[in-house]
Amino acid sequence: MIHHPACQIAHFTSVSTFYIIWNKTFYRSYELTHATGEYTVRAEAYGYQSRSQTVNVEDEGTAIANFTLEETPQGTVSGVVTNSSTGEPVEGATIYVVEDAAITPVTTNEDGEYTLTAYEGTYTLKITAPSYYSTQTTVTIEEGEPATVNIDLRPFIGYAGEIGYDDGTAENARAFYDAGNGWAVKMSLKEGEEQAMVTGALLRFWDTTWPVPGGTAFDVSVYDASGTDGAPGNKLAGPFSHTALRDGTWTHVDLTEHGIMVEGDFYILYTQTSPNPNTPGLGTDEDGPNAGRSWQYVGGAWSKAPEAEGNYMIRATVNYELQVPVITSPADGSYTNKDKVTVEGTSSPDTTIELYNNGEEATETETNASGVFSAEVELEDGANELTAKATTDVGSTDESEPVTVILDQAKPELEITSPENGSKYNKETVTVTGTVADENLDWVKVNGQTATVKDGTFSKRIILDEGSNQITVQAKDKAGNSIKKTVTIDVKYTAPTFENLMPNEDKELESGESVKVEFDSEEGLDATFSILLPLTNTRQSANAIELPMRETSPGHYVGYYTATKNVTANGAAVQVTATDDYGNKTVERAEGLLYINAAK
Asked: Is a pLDDT exceeding 60 seen at residue 26?
């Protein structure tokens, strides 16, 4: 294909003449040379529908192909560009067609509205605006069917920073003999930052004493650091023309409207646009530490500036992206019984932080120079979902990851069902049981030992000491609410002992005669004795005669047996049984035997 300002036609090497009728009124002629043969000739022109013809090129002949190109139908796309954080219209956003640089970009008005006209087709729209992330979308444009594309732009929420490596004072200044050369300084984002928006350049020029007569015109560009050994590589933006201040102050070049995003190192390039001496002199810092970041662009080639020239006084102003806040305290899923909680976290330094509880703004605070914030937030009963946003005049960051805190101010419900308060036990252990209810129960402890809890009941086996035992059951929920219940039980697991058990000698009893059975022990026993006839020494209860005993004086127990004529025993045993209030039981036989209605 060959290119013409208006149309494109296939190549020929033999002489042929073509007449192109453009829009039926405008004529262009072409003459091409092509080898003989049959060919397809295609005519193309921007904004017109292409046409093709078959032509036969003969030796020494002339083939004529006339074309009439019809204009390609046009359509429109319109819409509104808004701030995705606030919903407000974005004025001054630029919308352009990626595939067709000939289509003039349009900008939004104060209401965020735009209308763009293009030839029929499917295109990629790119939308940019100062202090916003750019975005792209696809649109199909057809004649007679206006397309509508509304666009949300995510604001670039940043905080200002300045990057520079000179000491702020100029000891010297330099200028090239020829225009088109320049100096650049390599800029590095501050530690921890991965990207930024370049908002401006700062340059320090010498005053009007040099050069003479001097000048004020210069250009600024922004490059990435993708060149060899970190040299300037691809141009990111510029050149932008500006006017130098030659009064000993810094010249600020505002680049905000260009939306220049950088990731990692980048360069600010000063380009001298006039030959010496009709140019400003760029200041150099020669007595400060040499940062090794100054480069020179001479004759179309990059190289590091000589160390003796010091630091060229070029700085960058940037907006670092605000970090989405991170709530570091309280922990997610934590519980409290306090009406307020102190929320702590991190974000970008010196930034306004909005704290939200369950989607409603709760309070506002500021980060310190280290990016740390802290503020009290009032809580509601139950679940509180806490989030944070960093905010500026442009908008807010995304919300932080939520942290949920449960406010619970109710104590657990607790009852001890066993053992009963004041009860007596004769075992060395007891299983303490009861009921407990709390949505956020953490634990139940019995005398400091963690109990087993299942389906609203608790149990714990504990060891008892003889004497009075106080059993304390405590239930605590995850918010720190606590309740205690106490029971006291009396424990004795030692059986009674007998002293002076009588009779201690054998006795003969005739019908109507009595024998006294007695012993000494602790007070308050329930005592009986049994006459075990000889046939009942195997303890067959059916052959035993059981009789009660009385405590006649503290700890002294007495009972009587009177022989009857229908009982005969040749050596009946006397067996005494005593049980204390705890259930401890002692059974012991007297040494003396009874001969009832029988001789010994």
From this structure: no
